[in-house]
Specification:
four-stranded mixed sheet; single chain; alpha+beta; elongated
């Protein structure tokens, strides 16, 4: 939980099965609102901040990476990258690495990502490999091993990145990043470029500047 008073702010957390706490003059909170809304905060944030925490949408995304014994698609003059008509992308993240092995990776967003979550691991692999093989035939014959990751099933993110719904840009634009007493906020969800690492980094600079510029109590 998070507690703050007129003079300090405190974070209470579990570490190696033991309850610990850290007290400071200020806090920069980078916890996604998808997770922060389930954390006890005393005293509670303003009503608008709590509403933003409850209503901010986090996109579901699943990534399935398939390692191949060779980069067979290059023989066809293909890059290993593609945009599908299913709100999915195919990446070749090892395109600049040395060696013969390669990776084709399905990055699936939206409702289809939730469908992948509901599948057993074998069915998820089969679905992803079929999607990739539509663009890069020959995948199954060259497949070596695979791994997958779901942002919304991760308890520390519960979604890949934030998305403002119609009307929320006007309603929440300021409150997403606004400080609450001694608590300052950073993270992609508090930036002008949500969903991107650049936005997260820029928000960190902004929050640090806020702390440094806040007069000492």
């Amino acid at each position: 939980r998070i507690e703050q008073s007129k003079d300090s702010v405190r974070a209470i957390f579990q570490q190696h099965g033991t309850q610990e706490s850290v007290t400071a003059d200020a806090m920069i909170c980078t916890i996604p609102f998808s997770v922060l809304k389930a954390i006890e905060i005393n005293p509670g944030f303003t009503q608008l901040k709590q509403q933003a925490m409850r209503q901010l949408y986090y996109a579901p995304v699943v990534k399935v990476a398939l390692q191949t014994r060779s980069r067979y698609w290059r023989a066809e003059g293909l890059s290993g990258f593609a945009q599908l008509d299913t709100s999915a992308e195919i990446w070749s993240p090892g395109w600049d690495r040395q060696g013969t092995a390669g990776i084709l990776q399905l990055y699936q967003e939206g409702e289809r990502a939730l469908q992948l979550d509901r599948m057993p691991a074998s069915a998820r692999l089969q679905s992803a490999s079929e999607s990739i093989a539509r663009v890069f035939p020959g995948l199954n014959a060259d497949l070596d091993r695979s791994a997958s990751f779901s942002w919304q099933l991760n308890p520390w993110s519960r979604g890949a990145y934030s998305e403002l719904r119609p009307g929320q840009a006007y309603e929440f634009s300021r409150t997403l990043s606004s400080r609450e007493g001694r608590i300052h906020f950073a993270g992609e969800h508090t930036s002008a470029e949500p969903g991107w690492m650049h936005g997260a980094l820029a928000s960190g600079y902004r929050a640090a500047a806020e702390v440094n510029e806040t007069p000492a109590a």
